[in-house]
Write a structure and sequence with these properties.
The chain is elongated, with a radius of gyration of 20 Å. It has 74 residues and is mainly alpha-helical. It has 2 helices and no strands. The mean pLDDT is 77.
Length: 74
């Protein structure tokens, strides 16, 4: 998706900032249930999850182990 200005169809940059104006990246944010959330959503969002960066490291480590010499049932 590309977000564009309706007036001139030029791409625009969408940014998320904290209330004090700091830029927030996707790794800096997390979802929490709002006041009207159902119990199932509260339970799902309460589960601890690894940050995406650590998931990427885990995946890379797994790929390295598969390609390491002797890792294929020597």
């Amino acid at each position: 998706m590309i977000v564009v200005d309706r007036a001139n169809a030029q791409p625009i940059e969408v940014r998320v900032t904290s209330r004090d104006g700091r830029p927030i990246g996707w790794l800096d944010a997390k979802m929490i249930p709002g006041p009207g959330a159902q119990a199932a959503l509260k339970t799902r969002l309460a589960r601890a999850r690894k940050p995406a960066a650590s998931l990427d490291r885990d995946a890379a480590a797994g790929a390295s182990a598969k390609t390491a010499p002797g890792a294929q049932g020597a």
